[in-house]
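Hey, can you fold this one?
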Amino acid sequence: MNGFEKRASLIKEKIKKTTLDMLRTSDPKRIRIADIAKRADVSQVTIYNYFGSKEALLQDVFKSFVDGAVRDFENYMAEKRTLKERIEYILFREKEAYRDFPPRLIKEMLIEDHELTRYIEELYKEKTIPLTVQMIQEGKDSGEISQDVSIESVLAMIRLYLSQYETILEMAEQSGDMDRFIKGMVHLFFYGVCGKS
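Sure. Predicted structure:
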């Protein structure tokens, strides 16, 4: 990468980081290119030259965020971890993701952008599901998951948790001790109400 390409890459990343920071506090519809440019200390023309439109910029920011989360998950899965540690990682990572992209914002972005929806669905099918199935199979092989429980059942349980994650996180925030609340949810996931500690 030559000096020009390096500078261009740094400017693009600065614009994307600024946009992500703004998405944490603002509705995407209210964010204007002029606001992003001002906060990133670049011209509006620079943003249009690199991204083409506000919609393309938002899409790029969200894709980068999701790609990074999947990469982190792949790296974490490559390390020797127990199933419980991996499930905790998924739930705690969701907590962090919730801060950057609340479920309301994700739904809004996916409803309005069919290309982004397709991208997320492909990523889910090609990367997330195979990694999760691998995790479950390794849990079965190590005896952490009962042989009586099917992979489909564990996937269904994970989906149930994640589909209600917005509600779970709201309850966790209201509890006053978010980490303790989520640890309790992990315990319930593995052992139920009366299971072993």
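Residues 114-142 form the longest helix (29 residues). Let me know if you want another pass with a different chain boundary.
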